[in-house]
Structures are given as structure tokens and as C-alpha cells.
Amino acid sequence: MEDDDEAGAVERASRLSRRLGRADLRAVPEARRALRELLQGWGKPGRSETAELLTSELVTNALVHTDRDAVLTATVSPAGLRVEVRDFVGRRPRPRVPIADDGTHGRGLILVQALADAWGVRPHGVGKSVWFELGAGAA
Description:
alpha+beta; 139 residues; Heat Shock Protein 90
């Protein structure tokens, strides 16, 4: 019976889902921590750190550029990771070249575009999901 419990725990651990409160930037480090726990032992060195960085960018964008809640979903398998952040605003994000005087703003999607194996935006009836994928192998 114990083996069944352990197998169920491993299966459940392969998915993360969190509701992110509107404009609550405390959700960013909490999302990173939850993703780090999910990814323990996954991928080549550096992959989980890249995943945390990109997740932070998507979560921050959803909370800063919308006035609504968002939902973070991460699904991990031996082959790869998919992270989605769904918000409830239809406006599509666009990568933009940051302005030199703009501090650290404007770089999130550029990082996602540069570091993810794949990424995109999927429209929903209300809102959209911005997602990225990382393979477990490449570092």
C-alpha cells in the first residue's frame, strides 16, 4: 500500500497550479519556491534556475500589466517542462527592446524568447495564457 501512496505522490508532484492574487507581487518569490520544489532532481544543471527566472518574468508581467488575478500552471516530465501563466485580459504581450533609461523594465519577454526552447501566447475566451517550454537536456 505504501508504494501506491508514493506513486500517487510522484504523479501529483508532476504538476503545479497556483492562483495569483491581483497585483500581489509577493506571489513572484512564492511561485519560484513552488517551482523549485517541483523541479528537484529534474533536468541538467542550470535548467531549473532558467525555469525559475522565466516563471518569475511571466508571473510578474501578469501581475503588473493586468488588474486581475492570474493562474500559474507548471507541468514537468522527464523530457521537459511547460509553464503557463493565464490572466484574464485579452491584450497580447509583445517583446520589446528595452529603453536604456527604463531600468529593469521591458526585458521579461526578451528573456523568455532568448532562453526558452519554445514560447507563445494562447488566447482564451476571456484572457490569454503566456507559456514557455524547456527540455530537460540542454543547459
